[in-house]
């Protein structure tokens, strides 16, 4: 039977989808029954949405492309 | 994320002939995402813009080596990755000496059951502080883990493309993203996520 550690490792390393079908099924069943592992899955999802929140403040100002094209064209 | 479009030989020829419209097309299509990633890798605004310019300059200089089968985006992000490593030599040393021990490892007993379960993060994740906290925690990641995390979770690239960009195997990418997430979770939990 699959352990919490195995499920957590596969979840955190993005390897669930690359498992064969019966293994994926085993992981789904485990997540349905294990509160800790499903909490980890939720936590990883929250981490993802938090990371996406950083996009906005890292956006360039509207003039980025024009400045780059001007400088690159001079070369 | 804009879907990645394979680059055509005709477009490459236009770039080789320094067609201003082709150059503008490449810049307009990709500069913004490259800049955003450079900022998320930890470069300040002026340096991030300089880095993106450096990426396009290198790309134009090395056009002959470009394989038309690749995606232009993958090629440009690959250059961004190499330029990032050049400018972050100190961080690379930090990466090499990064402890082998797995962050997640310490959370399980010998039978593979949770000994230190994940915290219930909902309360803090709903707060406005979250964005600020995750940025602080991302600053504490070794460079390669940070790149893997940003490309996957912020830029939403597929694993196969990230492996090409970072020049790592799928297994190595799994280790990088696993460690990055473990460190971020530990860092966020230490900053107030309740352990219930």
Key features?
heterodimer; A: 75 residues; mainly alpha; 4 helices; 0% strand; elongated; B: 196 residues; Rna Polymerase Sigma Factor, Chain: A; Arc Repressor Mutant, subunit A; 64% helix
Q: How many individual helices of chain A? A: 4
Task: Please give the oligomerization state of what you see.
Answer: heterodimer
Shape of chain A: elongated
Low-pLDDT regions of chain B: 96-101
| Broad shape of chain B | elongated
The largest pleated sheet of chain B is described as: none
The helix content of chain A, as a percent range, equals 55-70%
**Residue share in β-strands of chain A:** under 5%
Structurally, how many domains make up the residues of chain B?
Answer: 2
What name is given to the CATH topology of the largest domain in chain B? Arc Repressor Mutant, subunit A
User: Low-confidence spans of chain A: pLDDT under 50, at least 5 residues?
Assistant: none
Give the % helix of chain B.
55-70%
CATH class term of the largest domain in chain B:
Mainly Alpha
* CATH architectural category of the largest domain in chain B: Orthogonal Bundle
Average pLDDT, all residues of chain A: 92
Total E-strand runs of chain A: 0
Largest sheet features of chain A: none
CA(first)-CA(last) distance of chain A: 62 Å
First and last CA, distance of chain B: 36 Å
């Amino acid at each position: 039977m699959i352990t919490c550690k195995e499920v957590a490792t596969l979840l955190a390393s993005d390897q669930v989808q690359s498992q064969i079908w019966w293994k994926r099924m085993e992981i789904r069943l485990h997540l349905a029954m294990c509160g800790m592992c499903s909490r980890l899955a939720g936590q990883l999802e929250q981490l993802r949405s938090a990371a996406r929140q950083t996009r906005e403040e890292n956006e360039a100002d509207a003039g980025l492309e024009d400045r780059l094209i001007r400088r690159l064209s001079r070369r | 994320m804009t879907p990645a479009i394979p680059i055509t030989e005709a477009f490459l020829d236009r770039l080789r002939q320094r067609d201003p419209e082709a150059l503008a097309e490449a810049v307009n299509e990709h500069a913004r995402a490259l800049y955003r990633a450079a900022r998320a890798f930890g470069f300040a605004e002026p340096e991030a813009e300089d880095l993106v310019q450096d990426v396009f300059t290198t790309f134009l200089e090395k056009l002959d080596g470009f394989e038309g089968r690749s995606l232009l985006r993958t090629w440009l992000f690959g250059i961004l990755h190499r330029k990032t490593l050049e400018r972050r030599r100190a961080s690379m040393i930090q990466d090499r000496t990064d402890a082998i021990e797995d962050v997640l490892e310490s959370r399980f007993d010998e039978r593979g059951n949770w000994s230190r379960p994940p915290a219930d993060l909902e309360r803090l994740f709903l707060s406005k502080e979250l964005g600020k906290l995750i940025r602080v925690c991302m600053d504490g990641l070794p460079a390669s883990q940070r790149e893997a995390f940003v490309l996957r979770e912020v830029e939403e690239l597929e694993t196969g493309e990230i492996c090409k960009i970072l020049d790592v195997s799928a297994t190595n990418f799994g280790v990088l993203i696993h460690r990055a997430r473990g460190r971020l979770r530990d860092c966020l939990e230490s900053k107030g996520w309740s352990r219930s």
